[in-house]
């Protein structure tokens, strides 16, 4: 999973100041590590890290890709699954 | 910059435009509406309307929750905070939105405790770590942000955090689409479906648009090539006399959406009987209130909201823009009394609003103020 793969899902990053409300700043990130139950540390394509909730993507594992809105992951793409063009 | 070359590649874009040109039937008009602020912004930012044949008109529907929020709701939240000494928290997008007595930032300047948060979970954390504060989260957004509010309320309830409440302004997309289609002057031939809302709700809920109203829907990504491919898919359907729901954004959206997020929303929210959409009027069952079990965390029940009503200015033709009846520059206030710095109408409020996007990216000749 490369930075290109993340960018195929959107170019927003964790420190963007675009509009969260409209959901267009849903951020593609890669899971770096499990932080604590229900939370994982993630990294965006520029290397910015944050901790996000995985209540709605409980199978997320290190290496997987998540789409995150407002601190919560909404979509999960396992590392083994190629990001479609 | 390599990242998204494949979705912005000039050769691929030209091929897509050639295909669109070929698909346009002689004398036929195609009026396609997007209902996502992100799509609206992308269409203006990349100038896609100018690239398309004249036969295709892109209409910019109600895709921005900040824009469609009635002014009175924000005033209610800020009044509550000021009157009861609450800590008012909201997404950064809300901070400059004008209320009758000022924006959240202007309230902050008057001494009200106003704080920007990235997530409602951050607002809950603030309450948890500061028992002396009474924290209100001003929740807003379509189905993309509703799950984060639902999760936050479930955690607040599970932990028994009593100094936290939510003022829900979450809206539901589908009743608004139905209201548009039922409108007497509906001129919409097809919809570009919102990408990120659909990561949560999936594609299935759009079926009524195809089956009951005979309009194609294509759920789309946000890059220029995504949007042009979606237009191509819509044209093919229309030319074949078909109306189905298709998913162009398969790299992020599944047919069923995120079922866990949908279950959380079902537990925490109930549909309000009516909700006012700025520029569109009252739409039945178009917004989320809190379910009975979450009443202790419902700011409107906890603090007796004042229910401020603010009339939309008569001259602002936001509703006509939202329904695709007119384009933004056809409103008499556009670029004159109504600008992004001093918005009068709903669609100039957020950068994702159709009028604000048009103001920022459209041709200079559309802006009389510069003439």
Report what the structure shows.
The complex is a heterodimer of chains A (85) and B (371). Chain A is mostly beta strands and 85 residues long. Chain A has 1 helix and 5 strands. Chain A has one helix spanning 3-7, and strands at residues 27-36, 39-43, 49-53, 65-69, 72-77. Chain A starts with a helix and ends in an 8-residue tail after the last strand. Chain B has 371 residues and is α/β, with parallel strands linked by helices. Chain B folds into 2 domains: 1-65 and 186-242 and 322-366, Rossmann fold (3-Layer(aba) Sandwich), CATH 3.40.50.11750; 69-171 and 257-303, Rossmann fold (3-Layer(aba) Sandwich). Helix content of chain B is 40%, strand content 15%. Chain B contains 17 helices and 13 strands. In chain B, the strands form 4 sheets. In chain B, strands 2-1-7-8-9 form a 5-stranded parallel beta sheet. A 4-stranded parallel beta sheet of chain B has the order 4-3-5-6, with helices on both faces. In chain B, strands 10-13 form a two-stranded antiparallel sheet. Chain B is globular and about 65 Å long. Chain B starts with a helix and ends in a 10-residue tail after the last helix. Chain A binds chain B through residues 3-4, 6-11, 17-24, 26, 45, 53, 55-58, 67, 69-72, 74-75, 77, 83-85, and chain B through 2-4, 6-7, 36-39, 41, 63-66, 91-94, 118-122, 140-142, 144-145, 147-148, 151, 194, 196-197, 199-200, 222, 250-253, 258, 260-261, 264, 350-352.
Summarize the structure.
The complex is a heterodimer of chains A (85) and B (371). Chain A is mainly β and 85 residues long.
Observed structural traits:
heterodimer; A: 85 residues; mainly beta; SH3 type barrels; 5-stranded antiparallel beta sheet; globular; B: 371 residues; alpha/beta; Rossmann fold; 4-stranded parallel beta sheet
């Amino acid at each position: 999973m490369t930075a290109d793969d993340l960018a195929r899902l959107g170019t927003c990053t964790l420190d963007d100041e675009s509009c969260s409300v409209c959901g267009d700043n849903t951020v593609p990130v890669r899971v770096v590590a499990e932080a604590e139950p229900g939370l994982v540390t993630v990294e965006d394509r520029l290397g910015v890290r944050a901790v996000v909730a995985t209540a709605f993507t409980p199978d997320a594992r290190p290496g997987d890709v998540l789409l995150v809105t407002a601190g919560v992951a909404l979509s999960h793409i396992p590392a083994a699954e190629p990001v479609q063009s | 910059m390599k990242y998204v070359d494949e979705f912005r590649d000039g050769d691929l874009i030209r091929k897509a435009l050639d295909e669109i040109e070929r698909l346009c039937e002689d004398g036929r008009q195609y009026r396609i509406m997007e209902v996502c602020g992100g799509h609206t912004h992308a269409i203006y930012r990349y100038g896609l309307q100018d690239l398309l044949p004249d036969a295709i008109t892109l209409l910019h529907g109600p895709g921005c929750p900040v824009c469609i929020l009635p002014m009175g709701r924000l005033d209610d939240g800020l009044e509550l905070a000021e009157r009861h000494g609450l800590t008012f928290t909201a997404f950064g997008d809300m901070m400059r939105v004008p209320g009758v007595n000022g924006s959240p930032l202007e309230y902050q300047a008057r001494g009200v405790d106003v704080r920007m948060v990235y997530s409602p979970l951050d607002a809950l954390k603030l309450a948890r770590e500061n028992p002396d504060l009474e924290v209100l989260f001003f929740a807003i957004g379509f189905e993309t942000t509703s799950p984060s509010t639902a999760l936050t309320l479930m955690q607040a309830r599970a932990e028994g955090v009593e100094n936290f409440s939510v003022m829900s302004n979450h809206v539901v997309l589908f009743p608004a689409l139905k209201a548009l289609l039922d409108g007497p002057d509906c001129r919409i031939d097809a919809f570009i479906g919102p990408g990120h809302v659909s990561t949560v709700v999936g594609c299935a809920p759009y079926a009524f648009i195809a089956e009951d109203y005979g309009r194609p829907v294509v759920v789309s990504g946000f890059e220029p090539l995504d949007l042009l491919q979606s237009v191509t898919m819509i044209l093919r359907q229309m030319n074949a006399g078909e109306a189905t729901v298709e998913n162009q954004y398969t790299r992020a959206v599944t047919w069923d959406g995120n079922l866990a997020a949908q279950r959380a929303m079902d537990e925490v929210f109930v549909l309000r009987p009516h909700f006012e959409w700025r520029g569109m009027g009252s739409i039945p069952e178009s917004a989320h209130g809190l379910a009975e079990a979450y009443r202790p965390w419902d700011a409107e029940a906890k603090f007796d909201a004042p229910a401020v009503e603010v009339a939309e200015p008569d001259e602002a033709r936001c509703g006509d823009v939202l329904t695709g009846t007119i384009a933004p520059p056809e409103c008499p206030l556009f670029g004159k009394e109504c600008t992004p710095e001093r918005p009068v109408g709903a669609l100039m409020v957020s950068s994702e609003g159709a009028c604000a996007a048009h103001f920022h990216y459209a041709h200079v000749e559309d802006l009389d103020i510069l003439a």
